C-alpha cells in the first residue's frame, strides 16, 4: 500500500469517527434538552392582608388615639400585614404604601439644644440652634415603601398629628395589581 492509500484510509476512518461522535452528541442533546417538567410552571398567586393593630368600630374602622408629647406633635403607630405567594413566604418583595393625609411644616423644622452637665451635676444649656427654611414642605403621614420579611410579614409606620383629630385616615398597601385599604379614625 502506498502512502496515498494509507492517507485516504486514515481520512475515511477519521471522518467515520467524527460522524459517529457528532451523532452521539446530537442524540444526547435531544435526549436531555426537553422534559415534561420543563413545561410545568407554578403561577404566582399573591395574597395581601393588612392589620391596623388597633381596636375597631362595629363598622370595621380602626380607632387610633392621638397622643403627642412635649417633644413631638406626631403619634407613631405601626401597621402590619402579610404578603404571601401560593400561601408561602415570597422572596422579599417591595410593597408601596399611601395615606390620605399629610401636613405642612412651618419655617422652623426643629430646634437643636446643646447641653452639658456643670460641676454641680445640673444640666446647663450651652447653645440653641434653629433649623429653618422648610416652610411649606409637605410631610407624609406614612412610610411609603417597605419589603416583605420573614413569613411574608409587611410593616409600615404612620405618624398623624394632633390637628387631624376627628379625621379618618385612609391607608393603602399596594403590591403589583393587589391593593388593600384600611381606614383609621383619629381620636
Structure description:
- The chain is of the alpha+beta class and 187 residues long.
- The protein folds into three domains: 37 residues; 102 residues, Immunoglobulin-like (Sandwich); 33 residues, no CATH class.
- 19% of the residues lie in helices and 41% in strands.
- It is built from two helices and twelve strands; from the N terminus they run H-H-E-E-E-E-E-E-E-E-E-E-E-E.
- It has a five-stranded mixed beta sheet with strand order 2-12-11-4-9, with no helix packed on it.
- A hairpin with a 2-residue loop joins strand 11 and strand 12.
- The longest helix has 31 residues.
Please outline the helices and strands.
Layout: H1 3-33, H2 36-39, E1 46-51, E2 62-64, E3 77-85, E4 94-99, E5 102-104, E6 108-117, E7 123-132, E8 138-140, E9 145-147, E10 153-158, E11 168-175, E12 178-186
Parallel strand pairs: 2-12
Antiparallel strand pairs: 1-3, 3-10, 4-9, 4-11, 5-8, 6-7, 11-12
Amino acid at each position: 500500500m502506498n502512502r496515498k492509500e494509507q492517507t485516504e484510509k486514515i481520512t475515511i476512518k477519521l471522518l467515520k469517527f467524527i460522524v459517529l461522535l457528532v451523532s452521539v452528541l446530537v442524540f444526547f442533546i435531544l435526549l436531555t434538552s426537553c422534559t415534561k417538567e420543563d413545561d410545568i410552571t407554578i403561577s404566582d398567586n399573591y395574597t395581601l392582608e393588612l392589620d391596623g393593630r388597633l381596636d375597631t368600630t362595629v363598622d370595621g374602622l380602626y380607632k387610633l388615639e392621638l397622643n403627642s408629647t412635649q417633644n413631638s406633635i406626631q403619634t407613631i403607630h405601626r401597621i402590619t400585614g402579610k404578603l404571601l405567594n401560593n400561601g408561602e413566604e415570597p422572596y422579599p418583595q417591595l410593597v408601596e404604601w399611601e395615606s390620605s393625609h399629610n401636613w405642612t411644616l412651618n419655617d422652623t423644622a426643629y430646634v437643636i439644644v446643646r447641653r452639658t452637665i456643670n460641676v454641680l451635676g445640673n444640666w446647663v444649656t450651652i447653645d440653641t440652634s434653629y433649623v429653618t427654611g422648610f416652610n411649606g414642605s409637605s410631610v407624609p403621614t406614612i412610610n411609603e415603601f417597605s419589603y416583605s420579611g420573614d413569613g411574608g410579614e409587611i410593616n409600615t409606620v404612620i405618624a398623624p398629628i394632633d390637628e387631624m383629630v376627628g379625621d379618618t385616615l385612609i391607608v393603602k398597601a399596594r403590591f403589583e395589581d393587589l391593593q388593600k385599604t384600611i381606614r383609621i379614625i383619629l381620636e
